[in-house]
Amino acid sequence: MAVTASPERDIVATPMQRATREALYAGAIALGLFVLFIGLRTDQNISNELILVQRWLLLAVVVVLTMAGRFLYVAYGQPFLANQQIVDVATGLLPESVATRFFRLPYFIAAIATVAVLVFLAGSLDGLLGPGLAGYARFLRALAIIYALASVLFYFRTFIHAHFSALGITALALYPVIVVLVLALYGGSVAAGFQGSLKWVDNFGIQILIYVMLAWGLNIVVGLAGLLDLGYVAFYAVGAYAYALLGTQYGLSFWILLPAAGAMAAFWGVLLGFPVLRLRGDYLAIVTLAFGEIIRLVLINWREVTNGSAGISGIPKVTFFGLMTFNVSDPNYIAKVFDIATSSAYYKIFLYYLILGLCLLTAFVTIRLRRMPVGRAWEALREDEIACRSLGINTTTTKLTAFATGAMFGGFAGSFFAARQGFVSPESFIFLESAIILAIVVLGGMGSLVGIAVAAMVMIGGTEVLRELDFLKQVFGPDFTPELYRMLLFGMAMVIVMLWKPRGFVGSREPTAFLKESRAVSGSFTKEGHG
Amino acid sequence: MQYFVQQLINGLTLGSIYGLIAIGYTMVYGIIGMINFAHGDIFMIGAFAALIVFLILGALFYSVPVVIALLVMMIVAMLLTSMYNWTIEKVAYRPLRGSFRLAPLITAIGMSIALSNFVQVTQGPRNKPVPPMVSKVYNIEGISVSLKQIIIVLVTIVLLALFWYLVNKTSLGRAQRACEQDRKMAALLGIDVDRTISITFIMGAALAAVAGTLFLMYYGVVVFSDGFTPGVKAFTAAVLGGIGSLPGAVLGGLMIGFIESMWSAYFSIDYKDVAAFSILAIVLIFLPSGILGRPEVEKV
Question: Model's pTM, two decimal places?
Answer without folding.
Answer: 0.86
